[in-house]
Every structure is written in structure tokens, then in C-alpha cells.
Amino acid sequence: MAKHGKPLGIDIGGSGIKGAPVDLKAGDLAGKRLKILTPKPATPDAVAEVVDQIVDHFADVTGDSPIGVTVPAVVIRGTVLSAANIDPSWINTDAEALIKEHTGRAVTVLNDADAAGLAEMYYGAAKGVQGLVILTTLGTGIGSALVYDGVLVPNSELGHLEIDGHDAEDRAASSVKELEGLSYPEWAQRLTVYYRTLEKLFSPDLFVVGGGIGKEGDDFLPLIEIDTEIVPATLLNKAGVVGAALYATEEGQV
Length: 254
Fold this sequence. Notes:
Elements lengths: L7 E5 L3 E8 L4 E2 L4 E4 L6 H14 L1 H4 L4 E5 L3 E2 L2 E2 L14 H9 L4 E4 H12 L8 E7 L3 E7 L2 E3 L8 E2 L2 E2 H5 L1 H7 L3 H19 L3 E5 L6 H4 L9 E3 L6 H15 L1
Helix pairs in contact: 1-3, 4-9
């Protein structure tokens, strides 16, 4: 097996699990992405089996290079500690040990929004920005990443701030827009409340907005009435995969 292959990024989502080798110089996928539907129920063992399939699929390209895996949850030293948008059986699972058991390979596991935040900082909309950048992913829920002068502050979970008696993502996630049939101006009003709250708490230098809805940013970002600059993410659906591979590579060098 080739020793010096490309690092592999794998992004575990609610509907699909995506993986691809990553070119860290270009900040882009180094080959065609493989996507496999997320098993139902998405128990740790069932998901780890899919991760194993993706690792095997790219074995010739990646060799024994680092593997990074994202999960939509709080991750502390490889262990999953929350399950707002994944199967509850993940709570207290040592994801790094479990995936190693299934794949025979050491992996580095991190929160999915944190991975996207790192990718945007190195290669995308937040590249070269000094100070505090807050990335939010608007999707089924709201994920977040805090990056200060190039350093990730992990597991921020700002989608779960309580605003006006509600979990923020229960009012402002893009899934809620679809569910309630909100127009862009109606949704932007809710997003304005959300981002004003983040402004008040953190005084960031930049907001970056990702998630599946990010490519529609021109339709709603100009309608959000805040003082901080707010821009769409540029890596979109690749961000999790790229950020996971980057993080795994960096962790291996520490």
C-alpha cells in the first residue's frame, strides 16, 4: 500500500455519508466523491460500517494517510457527547475507537461545523480574516464554528442558544423555513434576531454562512439587518470533507 497518499475526509450527515481524498494544497477534492445513504437507524455500528466501505473504496489513493471524520455532534477527544441531529445511541460513544475497530485505521473525529469552519478559514470565505470569525451552517439545524486568529474553538453549538424562549435552530434553521413555508423576507427577520444575538455576545469580525442553503445566499443574506459583515461560504458541500482531512493531518503533526 502506498505510504504517502492523499488524506481522506469523510462527512457523516443525516441523509448521506460522503467521502473523498483531499488535495490540501488546493483545498479541494482530489477525486470523485463517494456518497452512501446514511443507514436507518443510524446507530454507531451501522454508520461505522459505511465509513469502512468508504475507506476501502479509496484505499489505493489514500494509502495510510490521515483520515478525518465529521459527526453532527459535540466531540471531546474522540467521544461523542450530544445527539441533537443523530441517533441517541451515539451519546458517550468513543467514535475514534469504534471506527478504528471497523476499519483497522486510526481516525480523527470532529464536529461537522467545526470542519467546515476550518475549511473556510484555510481556503474559503474566511481566508486571511483577522480576529473572530463565526461560521454558521443553516440546514436541518444550525451548526457553528468559532475561529479566532486561525485557532478553532471547538464544539460551540450556537444553534442551541435560547432566544425568546426557543432553541435558536427551532426558529431559524433552513428546515424550519421549508416546514413553515416562510418567504425569504420572513425567514430573514428570524435570522436577523439570531445574528444580532450572536453580535451582542461575541462582537465577531465576520459571519460566514454555509450549509445546503448557502448557495442561495443572494436571496436572503442582504435582507439580514446586522452590523457585522456576513458572506456566503465558498466551499459549500465540500467543506466538511476538506476540513476533516485538514484537521486529521494537522492533528497528526502536533
